[in-house]
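Researcher: Next entry: Domain X domain-containing protein (Aegilops tauschii subsp. strangulata).
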Amino acid sequence: TSPPMPPPRAALRRLLPATGIQPIRRRPAPPPPADQSPLPDPYALLVHDPIDLLSSLWRRAFAHPPSTPFPNLSGYASRLDLWLLSYQRACAHATGSFPPRQAVPLPTLHSLLRLRAAALRRHPAFPWGASTHLLLRSPADAPSTVPVSRRKLTARLANAPPPFQDHVVQELLLLLLEPVFEPRFSPKSHAFRPGRGPHTAIRSVRSGFAGYLWFITADLTTVVDALSSDTILSCVERAVSDRKVLSLLKSALNAPVRPGSVPPREKDLDGLSKKRLKRKVLRKSRKKKVLNEDEPKPDPYWLRLFFGFAPEQACHVPEYGHCGIISPLLANVCLNELDWWMEERINEYFRPSRHDSIWKEAGDEGCHNPSWPEFVPSSGREKTRKMDFLRFGSHVLIGVRGPREDAVEIRRQLMEFCERTFGLRPENSSVEIEHITRGIEFLDHVIARRVIYPTLRYTASGGNIVSEKGIGTLLSVTASLQRCIRHFRKLELVKGDRDPEPLPCSPMLYSGQAHTNSQMNKFLETMADWYRYADNRKKIVGFCAYVIRSSLAKLYAARYRLKSRAKVYKIASRDLSRPLRESTNNDAPEYSDLLRMGVVDIIEGVQFARMSSIPSCDYTTFPRNWVPHHELVLHEYIKLQDPKFFCELHKTIKRREISSPQDDVSKMVWHYKVHGVYDNNRVSKKLNEWRSNDEAVNGDTQLLLDK
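Model: Predicted structure:
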């Protein structure tokens, strides 16, 4: 028999009141929270190329008038394509490899969607510096299955580094804010900007600071490090009006930072701590370490050596709250107020004089040839008064052509402006005034004035050629040898100061001769490029090559038991290119045989063993209105998109009766079809016409672009 059917639910409801049993009323299920709402399909959102999105943002930012804030950054911030690009950049920094777009798994894309929702909502704020309940983890983080005590867990969380999801959000903010502020920055700033760097700053000094006698050097590091979040936000709000981006940036500035997550800087350590840290690092470097499968490889030794030569002005990177990699950009945003204030002071101070040899008129830009002598031995009341400046990070260099009283007044105005704008006054010792004859050190280069006595030849009345001795000055930009020795001593490659003695390169003790020489050659090539615009490039690069060659000779003498550098040079030659192993072990096969079999590598000789092989200083002229190539392309593209400019260009072509290349090609094809013969003379004639027409059009186009 079949089991009895259960009574219907309506009958049960009628029976329950008779039995006195109250029915259970289920409460409606609460709506799911925002972070647990059903996620959309991420593959349906990945429809755009992130490079195209960023290119459109750069075009819009450069075409937008700088006097008004840039609107609607949330539209770009909500693009999952840009979030995926930020994740790839953060992975490249964490793991050392840039993951392909197609290799990102689906759970990671879902985590990026949750991270995007948490970052773009204004309430509650984004959890910067979170230790638990992370929305996105780094691919290098291994899951921990070992149980730990509560005390150890608390200590780990207190000293945990910033989470990986913070780096992803910082990368996104950098992608969004950098194109907005780049067209608003002054061309006088050269640090932490694309297309600019120490080389552009040095070339600007060589090109535009030839006639200045007094220099003001200001170190505003203490002012930049102590900027308040309100000051930073007020400067950012002048260019950005998007509330979601401003709210995210405000939470990054105001969120508390764990003391254990910030590594102590070297200047904060005392002498004993530095010595202990040095011993610990040395002990760890001598110990053989096997890298994990997903662990990034450390930087090569030659690159670490080059990073040790970073100038003092470039070593300091500001840090604001949880902003991370966007902190230098925010520092430039705040100091941009100082840049434009200095631009106004430069225009007010300029007073040309007919009695001077340079800058006689307002439109005169002076001499831009660094090898041409400036006949300006002194300044006086009848001389031109002019001022110029540049800024590299938090370091300001101001050149003044005028009396020292003017330099003192400019220094006072600079300190008052910092106190009025940033709420902090620089220390008196950080803002100094120096004369050109004493030499001004900037970016490990010394700016000085060299007096020369050229022979002036001219034709006098009557056709006689007269030769007279003149006097003039040249701006000298030389690399600081003492700074170079100090960097080598810090890297433990030399000892002593006045007469430095090279030390053996102990970190390369267990490397082969071919690998060691290759590493040092890369370092010397990089150093030769770093001192590219120094007048004493041959001397400073020759000194670096001497230190490296002597250090390697001492290393090889200890490794192959040759007792002295002289025996190493005798066997391996001056550039250490000959093998040393076959000379110490007669039973081993010849090096040439091993090289032919492919068992050993080719030993490269240490470069710059002779002074003639070192390149000379690059004296290429640097125009005052120079802009990086990407900015030049953006400006030209925006002009070509303007219908008015395009109509002017089209009228120019019609006015000169110039036909386009497409019309000429169609005529040649039609001529070939009609006559059946390819007229070679006609083609060569057309090619010559195209060349002449292109030159004419390029000239007219350049005039329109200049307008």
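Model: Note for the record: The radius of gyration is 34 Å.
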